[in-house]
Give the backbone structure.
Amino acid sequence: MQQLERIRAELSDAVSGAPSARAAADRLCEVCVELLEIDGASISLIHKGATQGTFGSSGERSRRLDELQFTFGEGPCLDSVAQDAPVFAANLDASDMTRWPALTGAMLQHGINAVFALPVSVARRPIGALDLFRDRPGPLTDDDLTCGLWAAELAALPLLDLMASVASRESEVTEGAGWDQLASLERVEVYQATGMIMAALDVDPAEALVRLRAYAFSHSLSASEVAWAVVQRRLLPDESDWRRLPGRQSGTRP
Amino acid sequence: MAPEVISREGRVVEAFVSLAGSLAAGDDVMDLLTMLTTTCADLLDVKAAGLLLADRRGVLHVMAASSDDAADLEAFQVQRAEGPCQDCYRGGVPVSVPDLADTDARWPQFVPAARRAGFVSVHALPMRLRTDVLGAMGLFGSVTGDLNPDDLRLGQALADVASLAIVQDRASTDRDGVTRQLQSALDSRVVLEQAKGMLAFSADLEVGESFTVLRQFARDHNLRLSDAAAAVVSRTLPVTQVLSHANERGTRGR
């Protein structure tokens, strides 16, 4: 149990101490390889409207395999996002392994016999996946699956920041531990403000959360503070620059 | 049917009948939990009720409340990680506070917030499933004093039925199944908040009003509340359609 707690903390540190979103994604993949019984990891972003592709990896081989999924248009990471569920292929060399005809051969050629894809969600929508590659076949252990799911949760942070930099080039290095940052995005007022931004800017939930977080960073505010300002109509989301308004003090600000 | 003064016993029976009916019909968990809080506020000697559920990491989320004040107060407890509902969830046993004035030291942030909202007593009941604690229900009173034992037992019985409802969808018996269904209930909640935000922004409503508007729409169209919310968020149900229905029904403004 203590072991798991240590892994949980190390994964959290991986995404919070890096100099950029890409470095955070790479670091998270590297820590997965260090701590879990796997040989490679990669993180890809598959969100419409954003630049899709591989954004983090533990090394060259994982990066290439992840990118091949985009080339072939098939693979566990694309499936896990489409289904919003983990996709496991514990033995790629099995005779009934017909899901990804082109990719399977390429993975076997690279010495990969098992692959596990875990969806990465933002605002409860899958926007990408964490792929875990392993040379030998066989299922993930329960503990490794637990840790993999934690890593997939944390991977939302670098992906959010990558989407922000694509959208507005406002991505800054983030402060605070990974879990605390995630918790700050999981508040009622943040969900409500996300909905208001969706309506105001005609964007989807993930993009709305990206805008909220980007605004918070560029004004040195917390996501919660920005969310309250939006919910109370003191801040009006706008395409160019959000407008500050006198607003109305509806609801009690805890 | 002529409106009559229905006996308390009659209302208790009615509450269980509608909870059971909702269970049997496979109704939306969101609807059911909202009904639970309003039923508790009606039947028990309290002013309002709110309900918190824990996600797979043990982080509590506001699931339902009988009033905005109760929802705010539950959210406050989650954000500040203190308060009777928080303690009730952690300990898995009821926490009774007959007079908040005596407990300033125990919850230095929660007590002033509760009193500002007009509450002077709190009784928190655990949401239990076998040996697990799923969350807590807070009963907020506007008068001091212990809740009478009958009310406490009735509140706990209603909470227990609701706990069963959360996990009844796919008759899951294992821990993973329970976790998945809790997660799906929490996801529904997030989507509901996003939908409320979209409606609130589009029609310049208070967030609480937009909930009333959406619930009315769902009921009149025989939709589950969470399905209606998901349709709004995915834009398969235009916000304008929900709002014009509200105008026809005169739901707006409560």
